[in-house]
Amino acid sequence: MSKKVYVYALSTCVHCRNTKKFLEEEGIDYDHVDVDQLTGDEREKVVNEVKEYNPKLSFPTLVVDGEKVIVGLQKDEIREACGK
Fold first, then answer.
1. What torsion do the CA atoms of 29, 70, 21, 7 make, to the nearest 10 degrees?
2. Which of 24, 32, 49, 71 could form an SS bridge with 7, CB 3.0 to 4.6 Å?
3. pLDDT greater than 90 at residue 6
4. For 25, phi and psi rounded to 5 degrees?
5. Global pTM?
6. Which residues are paired to 8 by β-bridges?
7. Closest CA to 17 of 78, 67, 76, 59
8. C-beta contacts of 43-52 below 8 A and 24+ residues apart
9. Is 1 helix (H, G, I), strand (E, B) or coil?
């Protein structure tokens, strides 16, 4: 069974783009949000979500199955968390 992967990213962040590309190359399904593309209350809500997982509010922040948090493009850690 595949893991649920969610990526909090910025549209302008090269590390975020590389992380999404890596997930695609590894065949790992994921959902994502580009936080900088949000506005108003929606943006505030998502920023607060990210802070709960990653108080430094750095990107990309990946959440695997709602509990495992990986900050940045940590290829080995992502593979391990996703069972690859």
1. 60
2. 32
3. yes
4. -65, -35
5. 0.94
6. 33, 61
7. 59
8. 46/8, 49/8, 50/8
9. coil
- Alpha helices, H only, the chain: 14-25, 40-53, 75-81
- Cβ contact 35:8 at 8 Å: yes
Tokens representing 20 are 């999404």
29-83 confidence digits (pLDDT tens): 999 999 999 999 999 999 999 999 999 999 999 999 999 999 999 999 999 999 8
> Which residue is it, tokens 């549209």?
11
Instruction: Write down how long the chain is.
Output: 84
